[in-house]
Design a protein that fits this description.
- The structure holds two protein chains of two kinds.
- Chain A is α/β, with parallel strands linked by helices.
- Chain A has eleven helices and twelve strands.
- Chain A has a domain of about 45 residues.
- Chain A has a three-stranded parallel beta sheet. A three-stranded antiparallel beta sheet of chain A has the order 4-6-5.
- Chain B is of the alpha/beta class.
- Chain B has a single domain, classed as Glutaconate Coenzyme A-transferase (3-Layer(aba) Sandwich), CATH 3.40.1080.
- Chain B is about 25% helix and about 25% strand.
- In chain B, strands 4-3-2-1-5-10-11-12-13-14 form a ten-stranded mixed beta sheet, with helices on both faces. In chain B, strands 6-7 form a two-stranded antiparallel ribbon. A two-stranded antiparallel ribbon of chain B has the order 8-9.
- In chain B, α1 crosses α2 and α2 packs across α8.
- The chains are: A alpha/beta, B alpha/beta.
């Protein structure tokens, strides 16, 4: 959610043209690419700037391909509860948010219910259990046990709700490094189906402890059809992987680009001490 | 000192915050207003952003709500679920939200115009606006005013105000009691709510009553004495410009204001 999104993985989905997807997204900017390329059948989300024609040409592009997605909208809290219910394996979770709103009238997976104890009105948010979840993290071990820090948006319930989990990571580290600070592990190795080491895997978004965002460059590409076509051809379809994309970006925008984005004033927390 | 209408909006919103408040804020002018209050009269303000950030120290103005700068030196980094549980439990006094449209009863539409399945116009969606407006103890909408953005009734209630305006409409819908919109701040004036209806409280200096009326989509109620919005102080403008770095787009609303 707006921090450290799995952008490299989304680019690979675009390259492989994996389509007819149902996408669950909370402020994942790179989902714009899936929209623009007509790969989304159904979008479950609270917000996508690219639906807004004033800011982006990608909704219009999807429409021209007859591939504008079916929308299922709810609030951000609603979405986090749908995923938490998915993580828990229960059919729904209740909240008072969204009562009185038109989300309830238009989303069949939101329903007003009466509290079984006190009778008051509640909005039941139906569980979401995605087939595959992709999370980008700062580091993980070869089994996929992954450390994630910074804001977590909907990462904990988002990833744990999924049937299969793919972790992309800045760095694959030894299991000891994970086990020295196990409170930071967002998902244990046994839940993870695949791991890929992809430095700069969240670019153009920021990732805590690693790099700042380069979002204005991406947003500008989504605004204008010809700029978008050039961006897509040069940085996504025209390269085989993330490392090549970063090389291309440095070739075009100067060798200092990555150094400029990398964090300059790292703050090291006091060590968390474990042991016996 | 000259100031822009965007700065006027930020200052009005900032002054609504009390020291010790907990404010849940969206991106843009709302964030600037919260930061201004923290830098001036509310040193014990807690600012929360929906991606999971809870901060008591100010930060540079983030482009989105979530950047490394807005994460850094937070009191707690959590997630969207935790942030909203704070609101639903009633620990958040004030919400600051933007809006695509807002109507006579304070209902916000950030979803679409026309029928939902065949909209004539799409906004990007509500994000967390519905959560802020459903759950915070009170909330303030901050947006630029145009007739199309101020319809009598929105086509889609993304975020509930006083709904149909009948007494206790929010409670009847099941929303937490004693919640609801408190003010609307635009680049033309400040509005409060009387019996569930948006009511003009003050007009900004340099804005005409006629243009404010022309940019409202219904017959607007007014308080018995509509004043001129108190101007920003020099200190507020200094801090906004030096510490919060109001974005250049604010300049487009620059109007000459008597000093």
């Amino acid at each position: 959610m707006q921090h450290g999104e799995p952008s490299a993985a989304i680019h690979e989905i675009v390259r492989q043209r994996i389509g007819r997807l149902t996408v669950v997204s909370a402020l994942v900017h790179s989902v714009a690419l899936l929209l623009g390329e007509g790969l989304i059948r159904k979008l479950i989300s609270a917000y996508l700037i690219d639906l807004y024609e004033k800011e982006s040409c990608l909704a219009a592009r999807a429409q021209r391909q007859n591939a504008y997605p079916e929308l299922e909208e709810l609030s951000h809290y609603g979405l986090s509860l749908a995923l938490l219910a998915g993580q828990m394996g229960v059919p729904y979770l209740p909240t008072r948010s969204q009562l009185g709103s038109d989300y309830l009238k238009n989303n069949p997976n939101l329903r007003e219910i009466a509290c079984p104890f006190g009778g008051q009105k509640l909005a039941a948010v139906r569980a979401l259990v995605p087939d595959v979840g992709i999370l980008h993290t700062q580091r993980c071990d070869p089994s996929g046990a992954a450390h994630r820090w910074g804001t977590l948006g909907m990462d904990v319930m988002g990833i744990n709700a999924c049937k299969k989990i793919i972790i992309t990571t800045e760095k694959i580290v030894s299991p000891d490094i994970i086990r020295f600070d196990p409170n930071r592990t967002i998902v244990p190795g046994f839940r993870v189906a695949a791991v890929a080491e992809v430095p700069w895997g969240a670019y153009p978004l920021h990732l805590a402890g690693c790099y700042n965002s380069d979002l204005p460059a991406f947003s500008a590409a989504c605004r204008d059809e010809s700029v978008y076509q050039a961006y897509l051809a040069r940085y996504i379809l025209g390269v085989p992987d993330r490392a090549s994309m970063m090389s291309q970006l440095m070739a075009d925008r100067g060798p200092a680009l990555m150094e400029r984005l990398r964090i300059r004033q790292p703050i090291e927390a006091h060590a968390v001490v474990n042991g016996s | 000192m000259n100031y822009t209408l965007a700065e006027q909006m930020i200052v009005v919103a900032s002054r609504l915050l009390k020291d010790g408040d907990v404010v849940y804020t969206g991106v843009g002018l709302p964030t600037m207003a919260a930061l201004l209050a923290r830098h001036t009269h509310a040193p014990h303000l807690t600012i929360i952003f929906e991606t999971g950030i809870i901060r008591t120290e100010p930060c540079p103005l983030p482009q989105g709500v979530d950047t490394l700068a807005s994460q850094m030196f937070a009191e707690k980094l959590s997630d969207a679920f935790y942030i909203n549980t704070l609101a639903e439990r009633g620990f958040v006094n004030v919400g600051f939200v933007g809006a695509g449209q807002i109507d006579r009863r304070g209902n916000i539409n950030s979803t679409c115009a026309g029928a939902y399945r065949k909209p004539s116009f799409r906004f990007p969606g509500g994000g967390g606006a519905c959560d802020i407006t459903s759950l915070c103890k009170s909330w303030v909408a901050i947006l630029k005013q145009k007739k199309v953005r101020f319809p009598e009734r929105v086509d889609f209630v993304t975020a509930p105000g006083y709904l149909d305006g009948k007494p206790n409409a929010r409670e009847h819908a099941g929303l937490p009691s004693d919640t609801g919109p408190r003010k609307v701040i635009t680049d033309m004036g400040v509005f409060t709510f009387v019996e569930g209806e948006m009511t003009l409280e003050s007009i900004h200096a340099g804005v005409s009553w006629e243009s404010l009326r022309e940019n409202t989509g219904w017959d607007l109620r007014e308080l018995p004495a509509v004043g001129v919005t108190p101007a920003p102080s020099n200190e507020e403008i200094d801090i906004l410009r030096s510490k919060i770095q109001i974005r250049a787009e604010g300049a487009s609303t620059q109007i000459p204001v008597p000093t």
